[in-house]
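From the pipeline queue, job 12 of 40. The input is one protein chain; the requested action is below.

Action: predict structure.
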Amino acid sequence: METPIDSFITHFSKEIEEGNAAVFAGAGLSVSSGYVDWKGLLKPIADELGLDIEKEEHNLVNVAQYHVNSVSGNKQRLIQIIKDSFPLKIPTDNHKILARLPISTYWTTNYDGLIEAALKHNHKISDTKYKLAQLAYTEHKRDAVVYKMHGDINDPDTIVITKDHYERYHFDNSLFITALSGDLVAKTFLFMGFSFTDPNLDYVLSRIRLRLDNNQRQHYCIFKKRARLENETEEDFHYAALKQELVVNDLKRFNIKALLIDDYSEITIILKEIENRFRQNTIFISGSASNYGEIDKVSAERFIQNLSQKLIDENYKIVSGFGLGVGNHVICGVLEEIYQKQGLSLRDQLILRPFPQGEEVQKQWGTYREDMITYAGIAIFLFGNKVQDGNIVLADGVISEFEIAKTNGLKLIPIGATGFVAKQLWEKVINSFNEYYPVNDDLKELFFSLGDEKKSLTEHLEAVVKIINRLQGRN
């Protein structure tokens, strides 16, 4: 029987695939990177005021306002405490997974730059907006928009934290509310690390509910199920659990389904499963060929083109490192299919990562390969040779890509009949088939055929597509 989390993974994966997914990040998403949550952020301020932050945890906006009031409206000390709380940190695994997925819309109440850093790490261009004026401009070739509705730590004047800020938000930042309202109507949101106590979000959700009533889009949030704390009384625990249950039920008014987990580590597991489902639709093609061996050049080139064309026709995406004698024919095949099917986009169907040249840059090729391969869930290996000192030798880069793909859990499909490294890799898989495909004995005959040099290239193409479709449960 499908669990609520399984159902969410299926639905949200589909929304990602169709470009309809968005993420709303609260302070909880950044906590595991070493940043404090809202309560931790305001504890020094509460201490200065003589308040117990534990007793004021549902009144944090007022705590910030009390502090500003106590120094005659000067918020310099408040801002300094905030800035000191946000040294440079490294994005968490959750940030990195989200950044690898084709999600183009992020909203956050956080002041930190972890989302932007994760996107940059994945070679994506983020268009960050924390001022009204920025809403009118578009970053060139952006991959994602990051709306920081409560400001950025590097621009203290934009930070929203006091009661005054919240009371004026609808006047000072009305366009952010309009933009968020539009996204909540058009996209499926996943709220992470968010407690739903923010009055600005409540304002937006309430107005959407009043306008759309029962026609609101389905959204999701993840909560850790309330467990009994150390030294907590039975009465206090039951009260807290009841309150969480009431919050979960109240969110249904906004068509937000709460997913309850027992431990925060489950979030990473959920996100990895979503990434795995997305990756399975992306095929990494590894190979290089200064020489096509026993296969004539024209037939080999046409085979590579037909293979990539067929994969696009089967609704798969392709990622390639533009290997010599292979990459250019992969592109030709993709283009041929895209031009035949008028509605496809080259950018959506092909991820191309040509290797940068130069001795210094070559030292980073291992990291480059690792990054490229993480986009895919299946890897195909062709040929695998290069010219070195005037001789044809095996391509060590293709061997490296095989090992990286294996480490990253990709399904590996070497086409042994193309010879060279691909032949060696095919033998490796065949000789330890249960290690590579422990529950797929029905694929073994198809894999054996990939090493048969007497079979035609068309037969090999058909076998590869059958293997991939079976791995995907398509037939």
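Job complete. The chain has two domains: 4-35+86-276, 281-471.
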